[in-house]
């Protein structure tokens, strides 16, 4: 039989994996899938209201697999493990700090960390949402978006495509203020000594001055 590739998502605080997705060869972006048995996923706004399909919010996890908390760190436990307004009295849910959204098919798109939110000209921008849309283009294999000097700059690795064409791809799905000022192709993403993306080493666009 043919081998299968599954994309699993989950933090240590919820006994490792809480969602699963059987990957497909359709060229589309890969979601983190649907909740596994005995697990509930909520995507909520800052007031803990559920968000509709397609709207990004923080991912919360509830179910039998939650940890009790962090040993010797009661303040952090109280911050990350909160009362579950959608469960039975006394039930809790874990604030993951991850940005996600429901898809129409019931799967979940992972959009990045909430600490990658930025605010430019009074507008809140989810960098992970832009990165996910870049990855949805067939030519893009890796992507990262940063805010630098009050402008958005996107970086990507993959097959060649005109910058304007990639901007047009984003503009079909994003408001104008979320389309990066520049989109730069890289041969590879800069990595730190431990193999993680080193955002500080992403190059400045050459030949142009940021006003």
How would you portray this structure in words?
With 211 residues, the protein is mainly β. The chain folds into two domains: 6-110, Luciferase, Domain 3 (Luciferase, domain 3, Roll); 121-201, GMP Synthetase, Chain A, domain 3, CATH 3.30.300. The protein is 12% helix and 34% strand. It has helices at 74-80, 127-135, 163-171; strands at 6-9, 19-22, 34-35, 39-44, 57-63, 81-83, 92-102, 108-113, 117-120, 123-126, 140-148, 151-158, 182-185. Strands 4, 5, 6, 7 and 8 form a five-stranded antiparallel beta sheet that branches. Strands 1-2-3 form a three-stranded antiparallel beta sheet, with no helix packed on it. The protein has a three-stranded mixed beta sheet with strand order 11-12-13, with helices on one face. It is globular and about 55 Å long.
């Amino acid at each position: 039989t043919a081998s299968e590739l599954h994309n699993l998502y989950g933090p240590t605080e919820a006994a490792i994996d809480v969602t699963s997705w059987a990957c497909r060869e359709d060229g589309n972006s890969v979601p983190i899938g649907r909740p596994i048995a005995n697990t509930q996923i909520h995507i909520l706004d800052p007031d803990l209201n559920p968000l509709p399909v397609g709207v990004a919010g923080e991912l919360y996890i509830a179910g039998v697999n939650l940890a009790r908390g962090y040993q010797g760190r009661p303040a952090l436990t109280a911050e990350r493990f909160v009362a579950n307004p959608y469960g039975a009295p006394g039930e809790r849910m874990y604030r993951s700090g991850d940005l996600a959204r429901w898809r129409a098919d019931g799967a979940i798109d992972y959009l990045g960390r909430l600490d990658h939110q930025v605010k430019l000209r009074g507008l809140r921008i989810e960098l992970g949402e832009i990165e996910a849309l870049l990855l949805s283009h067939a030519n893009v294999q890796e992507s990262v978006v940063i805010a630098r000097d009050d402008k958005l700059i996107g970086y990507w690795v993959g097959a060649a495509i005109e910058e304007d064409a990639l901007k047009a791809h984003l503009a079909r799905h994003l408001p104008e203020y979320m389309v990066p000022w520049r989109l730069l192709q890289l041969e590879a993403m800069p990595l730190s000594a431990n193999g993680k993306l080193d955002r500080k080493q992403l190059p400045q666009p050459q030949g142009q001055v940021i006003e």
